[in-house]
Amino acid sequence: MTTKKNKFESLYGAKIPADKIEKKNGFDYLKWSYAWAEVKRRFPDASFEKHWFSVGEPPYSIPFQMDKKGFAYVKVTVTIDGDAITEVYPVTDYRNKAIQSPDAMQVNTALQRALVKCIAYHGFGLLVFEGAADELIAEEEPEKVEEKPKTKPKKAKKEEPEVKINPSTDGMREKILDHHADIVELEDDETFVTIKPDSHAFDIVEKIYGEFMPTLADKIGANPEEGFYGEPCYDTNEECVKAIEGFYKHNKESIGGLSKMSPVTHKAVMALFKKAKNAAQKGQVFEYQTGEK
């Protein structure tokens, strides 16, 4: 018969593959699907319960409860080998900050996090919450590197300027016009970038600013695996306004250059920033329309 001590030790000492521990916003997360699968594999009779609460008049049931300030909490119980452990967990955002009046997906995310924490109380993945995830990760065999026959070193080729691309929207905003086009080599490894004075090219520049303009519709912290597609990027209208101002300051020099190369485009871009800022101040979502002047 398995004792409580043996049960805890077997779960606490279990090694976890590195790809099952996710790092998000400075925190380590153990995937709930993997954690539950490992528990059931070791203890087939294990079960969990997501508690429901009766509220309202006439009464109805919801899977969370709220305090007087509007902060919400969920409650989950995990039973392994007859030992039941319950966790009351606050509903938080992607920064682990407690939130008020949560939506359904935020409650669902909190329930899954509470499930994982309950499993950790039983031992499995507990080191993740202790901040020692590296101790849990299963050791991987080092790859064998085949020795290649020695060859005479070739003359190093001249390296071309590296263009780094950040796939995130915010990264694209930071690099909005830091691209390299029509690079021409000069003496002493100098380079310069030329842009042909083509009206269509300037239309594209205007569209880029419009499409990447910060708005109150921006989302962050998406986790499609858990069915969560992001939370509002800005807590207040003012934060969105500051983001728009920061976007402008970063590209101020490039925007200023448009006044000489294409005054019409410069006027249109400045109008976009003004419209986006006014919308954010009023709590409205800015929507770019192609060809706005």
Secondary-structure blueprint:
Elements: H1 4-12, E1 21-24, E2 27-30, H2 32-42, E3 47-50, E4 53-55, E5 60-62, E6 65-66, E7 72-80, E8 83-90, H3 104-121, H4 126-129, H5 133-136, H6 169-174, E9 184-185, E10 191-192, H7 199-211, E11 219-220, E12 231-232, H8 237-250, H9 252-261, H10 263-281
Antiparallel strand pairs: 1-2, 3-7, 4-5, 6-7, 7-8, 9-10, 11-12
Helix pairs in contact: 2-3, 7-10, 8-10, 9-10
Could you explain how this protein is built, in words?
With 293 residues, the chain is α+β, with helices and mostly antiparallel strands. The protein has two domains: 4-136, DNA repair protein Rad52/59/22 (Enolase-like, domain 1), CATH 3.30.390.80; 169-281, no CATH class. Helices cover 37% and strands 15% of the residues. It is built from ten helices and twelve strands. The radius of gyration is 27 Å and the shape is flat. Residues 132-143, 161-167, 177-187 and 190-194 have low confidence and may be disordered.
Main beta sheet: strand number and arrangement? Answer: 4 strands, antiparallel
Radius of gyration: 27 Å
Morphology: flat
CATH superfamily of the largest domain: DNA repair protein Rad52/59/22
- Supply the CATH architecture of the largest domain: 2-Layer Sandwich
Give the helix level as a range of percent.
25-40%
For the terminal residues, how far apart are their CA atoms? 77 Å
SSE string:
HEEHEEEEEEHHHHEEHEEHHH
Strand content: 15-25%
Mean pLDDT value: 78
DSSP E strands, number: 12
Q: Extract low-pLDDT stretches.
A: 132-143, 161-167, 177-187, 190-194
Question: What is the CATH first-level class name of the largest domain?
Answer: Alpha Beta
The overall number of domains is 2
Give the helix/strand class: alpha+beta
